[in-house]
Specification:
Number of strands: 13
Bound molecules: ligand F0G
Number of helices: 13
Helix content: 25-40%
Strand content: 15-25%
Structural class: alpha/beta
Distance between the termini: 64 Å
Strand order of the largest sheet: 4-5-13-10-11-12
Length: 419
């Protein structure tokens, strides 16, 4: 499993700034992190990732939340809304029904703006301040825009968000709007929005805070770090598998990087790395297709559709980082139907855990992989639920019980209850 090593070997290049630099994952080019605004490699257009002169051990972490892991970050804490430190819920009924030894749900919907995006934004927006930009932008299926709007306004920077018209859940648009983002509703899907906003960023119109931005993903590593620490503290061992919904595959890439850094620091043996297991909706499953076909690259889907609008994405830009992560950790990827997603959303809700549809995909995927025998009964699994139920109130109401109209009298209510 050589892919679990950081490659190329982390020799500190001259361009490093305080022990931090950017490296191209394709050609290995080392770049100064804060001199120019870079999203991809100027030489070969490959994706970039942050590298460090040293990688911390668990003993180096202190405090709570994302900034507990500041030793793994490219910048000091700046703009924060106290993100991270999300609950790891037992879900005994689903654990029983699925039939695995240990199941926990890491509920990222409990972050300040209700999704995991806050972890990346606290870092990405701080880098934007270091770079001295004045306008932030993103394309979004909703959650990124809500997080960008909140962290942007808190840092005093202008924010611009491009959303696919008619395909963003109500709670997310409301957040972006109230936090003061300028919202552009694009006649096209998320992938079109990202194409446009990337062009705008290349032309210097705004600083891009989609997960193409290598610094944002540094914040998202902390999901993996929290999971490993919590499960180890609770059970004495790391989980065997982490199951997560996949859209742009930023989280998959970030978790993989967190694990490789722990391998580099000697904290995690290669055979202890959890199997990264991605779940997509059947109507938007290019990563699953690539994993099933053993392909090195993802083929973009031009037509995508799913009720899980957060992951209604046909061109996962982080695939070059995420595909090796799924493979090197011994994980896999699976597609689930909208019906399976809704069933899982209901099962989680029955245990008091309220999540948006995309989040429930993780549990739906686990259910299916266990039924297929890909996941075995002795596994210890963590499912990631990425966003809160209230993000998509329409989906929640449609999946839940209908309200019952009653007269405005106690007698009338009693009659109704007894009837
Ligand atoms: N779950 C939720 C709730 C999301 O909002 C997203 C992505 C994902 C999963 C997929 O994560 O892209 O790292 O694979 N939402 C982005 C957005 C695209 O614009 O809010 P990924």
């Amino acid at each position: 499993m050589t892919n679990l090593q950081l490659e190329p070997d982390s020799e500190v290049p001259d361009v490093a700034d305080d022990g931090v630099w950017l490296a191209c994952i394709e050609c290995g080019e080392a770049l100064a992190p804060f001199d120019d605004i870079l999203y991809t490699c100027p030489k070969c257009d490959g994706l970039l990732e942050a590298r460090y002169d040293s990688y911390p051990t668990f003993d180096d972490f202190s405090g709570s939340g994302v900034w507990r892991y500041r030793e793994t970050m490219p910048v000091e804490m700046g703009v924060t809304l106290q993100e991270g430190n999300t609950p790891l819920y037992p879900v005994p009924e689903i654990e029983d029904e699925v039939g695995v030894e240990y199941l926990r749900v890491k509920h990222e919907g409990m972050n300040p703006t209700g999704s995991f995006k806050d972890r990346g934004m606290t870092v990405g927006v701080q880098v934007a301040r270091v770079l001295g930009v004045d306008r932030l932008a993103c394309a979004s299926t909703g959650n990124t825009s809500a997080a960008l709007a909140a962290y942007g306004t808190r840092s005093g920077l202008e924010t611009l968000v491009l959303l696919p018209a008619g395909k963003v859940a109500a709670g997310k648009v409301a957040q972006a709007s109230l936090h003061g983002a300028r919202i552009l509703e694009v006649d096209g899907n998320f992938d079109t929005c990202l194409d446009i906003v990337s062009d705008l960023a290349d032309r210097g119109e705004a600083y891009l805070l989609n997960s193409l931005n290598p610094f944002r993903l540094e914040g998202q590593k902390t999901i993996g770090l929290e999971i490993l620490e919590s499960v180890r503290d609770e059970t004495g061992a790391f989980p065997d598998r982490i199951v997560l919904p996949v859209g742009n595959a930023g989280n998959t890439a970030a978790l993989y990087k967190a694990f490789r850094e722990l391998v580099a620091s000697g904290e995690l043996a290669e055979d202890e790395v959890p199997k990264l297991t991605g779940v997509q909706a059947e109507g938007a499953a290019p990563m699953v297709e690539a994993i099933e076909n053993g392909a090195d690259e993802v083929t973009r889907w031009d037509e995508v559709e799913t009720k899980a609008t957060a992951i209604r994405i046909g061109n996962p830009v982080n695939a070059p980082k995420a595909l090796p992560g799924i493979r090197a950790t011994g994980g896999t990827a699976i597609a689930v139907s909208d019906e399976e997603i809704t069933d899982a959303q209901r099962s989680l809700a029955e245990e008091g855990v309220g999540v948006e549809p995309a989040s429930a995909a993780s549990v739906a995927g686990l259910r299916k992989l266990r039924a297929q025998g890909v996941v075995s009964a002795d596994e210890r699994v963590v499912c990631l639920t990425t966003g809160h139920l209230l993000k998509d109130p329409d989906a929640a109401a449609a999946a839940g019980r209908d309200p019952e109209p009653v007269p405005g009298t106690t007698e009338g209510v009693l009659d109704h209850l007894q009837g």
